[in-house]
Amino acid sequence: MLKSSLPSDQLYAVPKSSLSFCGRPFARNRKHKGFSLIELMTVVAILSILLAIVVPSYQAHVRKARRVDAKAMLLDLAGRQERYNSVYNAYADTFTKLGYTAGVSISIPNSSQPNYLITITTGTATAFKAQAAPTGDQTSDACGTFIIDQLGAQTTSGGSVPANQCW
Fold first, then answer.
1. CB–CB of 127/150 below 8 Å?
2. Nearest to 92, CA basis, from 102, 106, 77
3. Could you read off the pLDDT of 102-128 as tens digits, one per residue?
4. How far apart are CA 53 and CA 141, in angstroms?
């Protein structure tokens, strides 16, 4: 049997410099800590691809939600016009006659950055027409201006999408 010149407690000792995992030294033995430039650029590339997909989709959903607010306001206005007509036998030409605080137009939402401007374009004894015109960021919406009249006809103008897809 071969005898070693090392004491028995050091027979199976492995030098710390030779410790590795899959050919790479353990992190505590690496001279440089952190990420390499290639790793960082890969993460940046993946994030930019994800953002290019997610942001336009998010903006489309935000515009669609804003449309819902404008349509709800127009339908509320139409209901108030019909109640006003049943009492006074005519349609109102201002918002104050319908119980709103605004006189000529209403901003949706009622803030410094409105998305739609609601106006009564016609208010006579026999007819009314109201519209919700997009403002600000909402002007790029494909539906354009929403219009409703005394017959309940729901149309759009200035948009690239048919009214039945917007209403």
1. yes
2. 77
3. 766 777 776 678 889 999 998 888 999
4. 19
- Give the pLDDT mean for 27-44: 80
pLDDT digits (tens, 9 = 90+) for 56-85: 889 888 888 889 989 999 999 999 999 999
Q: Would you state the structure tokens that stand for residue 110, as one six-digit string?
A: 């009622």
Strand, helix or coil at 16? helix
pLDDT for residue 20: 57
* Residue 8: DSSP 8-state: G
Whole-angstrom distance, CA of residue 87 vs CA of residue 81? 10
- Residue closest to 73 by CA, chosen among 142, 124, 146, 127: 146
**Which tokens belong to 72?**
């709800």
Q: In sequence order, which residues have a C-beta less than 8 Å from that of residue 159 and are 6 or more positions away?
A: 141, 142, 143, 144, 145, 166
Instruction: Tell me: cis bond preceding 109? Omega within 30 of 0 counts.
Output: yes
d(CA 76, CA 86): 16
Look up residue 89 and give its amino acid.
N
CB atoms within 10 A of CB 33: 7
User: 130, 155, 138: which is closest to 73 by C-alpha?
Assistant: 130
Residues 103/85, Cβ–Cβ less than 8 Å: no
